[in-house]
């Protein structure tokens, strides 16, 4: 945290993202306004950073009561209790949201970058909406900037065009763009009809960051293929129209220790609460999964693995339960509605096939607030993260962080960026059902000493490489580049 304060003293820091960290909604039940913490890896990572270093966070106001909580400049202090930073909301109409968010960002870029065999859809009208909303975010950055050289942290695939738009109006700004999802190889990215515009938009940044070196390499390969520019491979630098951009890996992480841990009951209590809540017998072993209901997460694949394990080894019947919490997300889109229906049908089919005294699959299509997620993690014997492709995946890190009892086994997809750091997890290929079934079997049979050894190593890894380290590395690079610019402009 000290690094954060020391890196850019006195700088005006602005974060720009589509998703906001706090959503205010009208509540029918509680007759008032309730605050929701959205399920978003981006938000989990950036929120502690903003609490630590202050500044302004510009995001789309998406809650039904959001407009009632802001002042005349569309701003609100959050978190309300400690007034740590300013959230500036911008407003997007339903029609704009259909084109910019559902359309181009989530039917185009999301499947394109994840390579999960959902065919990306590109419509000219979505693209036009994407351009105009990027401009709206860029205008908000200019309006919120208190100096002509702010530090602007642009987040994710919703805002690929904003960096160049901001650069045009604030040429001295330090713009850092972080891409929270994978970046595919040039062959794949080449499908996008507006690939040049996207890449040029991002090259308005001072630094473009990805989770892994592999994604940096893919990006540079795409620049090489599609844009007339100068690439210095040693420096991982690209120059376009006299402006230089550095491409860097920054593996994202979580707050350590997570603040949720402060008020959590011991693991045994969390476990017995879950057993009660789901009506299970005392000796049931618990496997959990927590994500947004997204087709990139491999939710069907892990259910199939549980199915395969029970078919292979019926002795597990009535002795294990798989609790999958899946927050409905982007449900307006066909691919998402279809996944939820398929998952519900598959759960019913598996429960029928292995019918005993209790259900094996417990699908909870609900949003859980962070404290409830942590309670679930702490009560579990194992957590499965079987993403078909994922930039990092912070659920894996959160599960490990919740286990200060050093118990529990993480089963982790080799296609999630997190698998590069958490090598003591049981690493699986989610496309290989039998392998995943064996991993679940192994997790549930693992001696506690081995669990503890693996858990300790993973906890140490996350503790050392927590989200403050991530932001510190980015801000230190930003500070270096500001010094370089200043020195060069004096020469
Ligand atoms: C991923 C994306 C984030 C996004 C989050 C939740 O983590 O990288 O940008 O906020 O999913 O998705 P949503 O569409 O609900 O914002």
TrEMBL record:
GO terms for biological process: trehalose biosynthetic process. Keywords: Membrane, Transmembrane, Transmembrane helix. The keyword Ligase does not apply. GO terms for molecular function: alpha,alpha-trehalose-phosphate synthase (UDP-forming) activity. The keyword Transmembrane applies. It comes from the Bacteria. Belongs to the glycosyltransferase 20 family. This is Trehalose-6-phosphate synthase. It comes from Bradyrhizobium frederickii. The lineage of its organism: Bacteria, Pseudomonadati, Pseudomonadota, Alphaproteobacteria, Hyphomicrobiales.
